[in-house]
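Case study 2.
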Amino acid sequence: MALNLALWDRLAAVKKILTLFPDPAGAFALSSEEWSAIGFRPQIAARLGAPGLLDRAEKEFDRSKEKGYSLLTLGDAEYPSFLREIFDPPAVLYCAGRTDILERPAVALVGSRRPTPYGRNVAERLARDLSGRGIVVVSGLAVGIDAAGHQGALDGGQTVAVLGSGLDVPYPRANRRLFERITEEGAVISEFPLGTDPLAANFPRRNRIISGLSRALIVVEAAEKSGSLISAGFALEQGREVMAVPGNITSEVSRGTNGLIKAGAKLVETWKDVAEELPAPVREALLSREEDEPREPLPLLSSGEAAVRRLLSPESPVHVDELLERTELSISELLTILLSLEIKGVAAQLPGKRYLRRL
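Prediction:
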């Protein structure tokens, strides 16, 4: 804990210290001068020899326990083994929720903070389909595709959110309820000490953990200069599979994903495309289960509901005025049918009285 507080932003120095001192406790007997003498830069030596560091670490530990957080260090058996394999794993993980799911097969799903309805719908569907088959969906709790992925995963199974701030400073505030639900049903983790604000420089660091926990990374909508592409770069460096959902060639938020596909990323349309690229044991378990699973039946629809459903698209939202023109229904009859389709899970209403088909 003390080592993480002193050098959470200097992971190369942490690795060197853990190599020199298999028992980190022995390292804190050294003074700043002694740290400098064995080759550490003055700035790092000053941090390690700072008065009161061990007291700060003890207080940090106590605060974490009071809040109900788990603390996983690189030396703990519970530390996620897949994350431990990356070049620069966090020295400490703060965890709110279930630590056991960090060891389960996981797929990262990331994308634009300003997605189209198509992108949001695809992210929710992919996450729901994967989590419903036992895959943990990992993302960053950002608004947009991240949030859609978390929500879809919670509808089908479990998800992990990785923060770019301290666990006690959840960000963004707009996703506070989602943060609380994930801590109840999945896990939220961070490498940052308590009280750390969501500074811009923290998020690229956060992204390496998202990919590091995962067997593969899927990008759903991303502009040419996007944090999601940074995540894809980390995934490639870590030896993870990189996949992307194709998008509209005229859309700015599709340029990054379409560019990834041009560069060789796997094109993803359904969960099966993802499963095909996972390690053999995981892939075989997923695909063999699918053979035995009956398809979810479409809810019983009236003739009017079925007719309106046929006019809806899963990709492009349809405005209520267009639906009114293409049917012989009154506005009150149409709105009643659309509400019924929403209740049955067949349609989703978007801002501006636009509708998408879900089933």
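The two ends are 48 Å apart (CA to CA).
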